[in-house]
């Protein structure tokens, strides 16, 4: 038997499969909303990392976000041209570029965060607030376990 959306019920019985489908839908919706602003998910990720952790050297920012340094350089270039981040070369090592968030970047991140929360609310509409809180706690627990296994 196949469900109305075409997914085999045996796969719908796997939490990992459901997480994958749900994550894909969530990323797609948020990516579409960001694209309306001419942005991608990595723009938001770079802004969020700078807001949460402070200025970073580009290579450390790439490592933190698990991105190729050349991809981070492109995103940082785009954000710098738009005035959302500042770049400062290290006087001792001209290859090192420190990136920091500007007030305009912080304001943009606040707008993007609000948009991400709207997408989240749309996706989680079938859940009560208590269920949303429980889901968040369970996902954090699974994420922490995965992170601890890959970090060690």
UniProtKB/TrEMBL annotation:
One of its GO terms (molecular function) is DNA-binding transcription factor activity. Pfam families: MarR_2. GO terms for biological process: response to stress. Residues 15-144 form the HTH marR-type domain. PROSITE patterns: HTH_MARR_2. This is HTH marR-type domain-containing protein. It comes from Planotetraspora mira. The lineage of its organism: Bacteria, Bacillati, Actinomycetota, Actinomycetes, Streptosporangiales.
């Amino acid at each position: 038997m196949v469900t109305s959306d075409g997914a085999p019920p045996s796969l719908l019985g796997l939490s990992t499969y459901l997480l994958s489908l749900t994550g894909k839908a969530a990323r797609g919706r948020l990516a579409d909303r960001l694209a309306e602003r001419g942005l991608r998910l990595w723009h938001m990720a770079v802004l969020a990392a700078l807001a949460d952790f402070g200025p970073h050297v580009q290579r450390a920012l790439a490592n933190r976000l698990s991105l190729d340094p050349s991809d981070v350089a492109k995103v940082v270039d785009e954000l710098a041209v738009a005035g959302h981040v500042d770049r400062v070369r290290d006087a001792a090592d001209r290859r090192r570029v420190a990136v920091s968030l500007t007030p305009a970047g912080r304001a943009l991140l606040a707008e993007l965060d609000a948009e991400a929360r709207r997408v989240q609310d749309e996706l989680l509409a079938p859940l009560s607030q208590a269920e949303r809180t429980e889901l968040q706690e369970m996902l954090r627990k699974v994420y922490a376990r995965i992170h601890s296994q890959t970090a060690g």
